[in-house]
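=== RUN LOG ===
request id: a7f3
mode: sequence -> structure
chains: 1
length: 842
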Amino acid sequence: MQAAAAAGETYVGHATQELTPEAFEYEPLAPVNVRGRSDPVAAWRLTGGAQQAPHSAAERRPLVGRDRELAAGGAALDQGGVLVISGEAGIGKSRLVLALEEQARDRGFRWLTSRCPAHGSSQPYSAYIALAQTLPATPESPLRLLRSEQPPELPADPELLRAALHRSVLDALRAQVAAGPAVLALEDVHWIDPSSAALTAAIAGLATRLPLLLLLTTREDGPTLDSAVGAVPPLSRRELHLTPLSADDVAELVNGELRAPAHPDLLALLAERTGGNALFAVEIIREMAERGELDISGELVRLRPEVRVEDVPGSVQGILAARLDLLSTAAAAVLKVCAVIGRHIPDDVLGHLLVAQPSSPPTDWSAARRELQTRGLLTPDGDGVAFTHALVQDVAYARLLQRQRRELHRRVADALEALRGDTDETIDLLARHLTLGGASARAIDALRRAADRAIRLFANDEAHRLLRRACKLAEEMDGRPAGDADPPASAGLRLALAGLADLLGDYDEAEQLYREVRARTGELEAWRGEAAVLRKLGRCDEVLALLDEANVTLRPQPAAQGLLDLERGRALVAAGRFGEAADVLAAALPKLPASSGDAAHCLIQLARAQLGPGDVDDARRSAEAARDLFESLGDVRGQATALRVLGNIYQELHREDDAAAALTAGLAAAGRLGDVEERGTCLVNLGLLELSRGRLDDAARWNRAAIVEFERVGHRRGAAIAHANLADTPGRRGDLDGALRHCSLATEAAHSVQDDLTIADVQATRAAILLAQGNPREAAQQADEAAQCFRAVSDLTAAGEALELASRCWEGAGDPERAAQARAQVAALSAETASLSRSAPG
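=== RESULT ===
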């Protein structure tokens, strides 16, 4: 053929033309005479590359072996809701999605699509950035945040911002559905970031109510998928797990690729080697054809005799690596750059990189890109190109030496900064490329700024991941043994990470980080942070010992002393030592700036201390002052605490509606922040409120939700309180055995954290249950023990109530003398309570 072709032209024979019609365009010629053949042979002249990339053409192949799945997907189009397609890489998920897209479009559906990028697990809303470019949005819509545009007015509160962003996406989808049924296809959910997962969950809920199908593809089931669609009712959620193709299906796929029947021996070999993986089957037959390893001269296509079976690759990665070996030098160089940029390669970024390094690869890369597309490695994608499959990028990236990767990642970061700056749009990508490029100082700064952006979007999980990377880089950059002093920047990163871990309920990590910084730098915030975590874990004695050590070690000035006293007061309140707590907090308040958040926190803790012994009016004044100060400072977390405490106080004042409103608002604020302790405590208090109103179902629901919240992070004290409160519900319904079970669970949890107040509360509850069961003597003993415990923690009101219960129990047990003694103790406690007087500081 080479000899027959004119200068500058390429002729091909029948076999080549049959195997490559989707890659190249040909013009038929009259048969030509070639050496070695007695008769003229059919010939074609190459006229150019095909208009359609081979990847897209391959996707249009008939769908093989998925009739059942395609029918199930068609049914999902009719019913809406959520459809999950799962399976290993290369099994055919994208091909099935394409078939469903064709079916949906034929039926008049709108088709929206997006993808979770492999690098996006720490980039908030990375799964929806591409989709946001296609959805209409008003100038003021928060949806423009995903386009890296700044709407004129946005809520300052992070959760309000998140809610507004979610609402804008949902409203845009509603507008799409208003014009007819629609499908939103989100691929590669195994790489989804937490913020995108939360938005996906909201979309999944919308899909259960509107003619909308949310179609997700993932390599695996698990927590990541559950976070996105786990709350969808089973009737609205369908799952299709793609299993390997059968030997017959592989045969059909291979014969279709060859456009000729293959020999049974070849089909058996391919079925065995590919394991029924569709991508592997297609790639291996292409590779063997390109290498001339197939004999297509007979009726059946077979291996050439000189090809050894053991030389046939045994993995799709091996096949792809072999195909990369066939690339020209220029195409191989371009592919290396593309592999570092990512799955999607914008033209401007790639062009900038190639111009910046004119020696390798060449600045005119159109021929190299055309070769990569022709070989089915890249495909056109919006403003650039994309890898036809994630595995292609993986293999290309794996072939780079570590030195090459680092250099290319730094060059990509430089290109992004030169072209787009360090805006919100690029900061996450910059952080990734600088980290992988070994540019530690720049990477740490980018990671910290990316974390700050994530926090502004209320993406705490993503921020946590970014800060962990920054801390690791700082540790490596520091290069000193773990026991040596940290530079201030490193300590600051650890404190920020500890604060996020604390907020997310990972108390073990938070405690460890605070202790490390405290040991290395002695910073006041590290002492306070560790004390706060220990208090949340119910280890109040350790808190007090730690604060004693801080006073000796730091010899603090008055302002710092006020902060340490604030932590001491909090611990004393948590331990139920209300009198001591009120004294400590009242002394701390004048040491703190009057209009500061610390002063507001001191006021709210003082309100809790005042509420313990029953100084309700003083507690209300302190709590309302704290709430007002938190609001003036825009401190959402402080507002959540103040609202929760005010809810308790209003309940004591029999202002039930005000109590419910305050607690509900506090719960919402805690949820916005992701504050586990505050949210759980609001749930407990709502349960108590509904119990006092006699709404037993609502009370049980709130307390069960609190138990789930607390146990999720190992907050044993919170779980103990919720179990103790839950014991009341079955008891009031007559399920006394169920009530006692919850008492046992509460006691076990309370003992594990030495929570004397909860232990006393459970004892009083158990006494009431035992009395109802007809066991007044044991009930009386429990009530007496509860009274002693309440007395020990200075809760005189609760101690008096326990003694009144003990008096009734002793009467029921036929012991009037012991009953009289209990009544006398009640009178003595009443007198003691009346003699106590406290007032809130001015």
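=== NOTES ===
The longest helix spans residues 158-178.
The radius of gyration is 35 Å.
=== END ===
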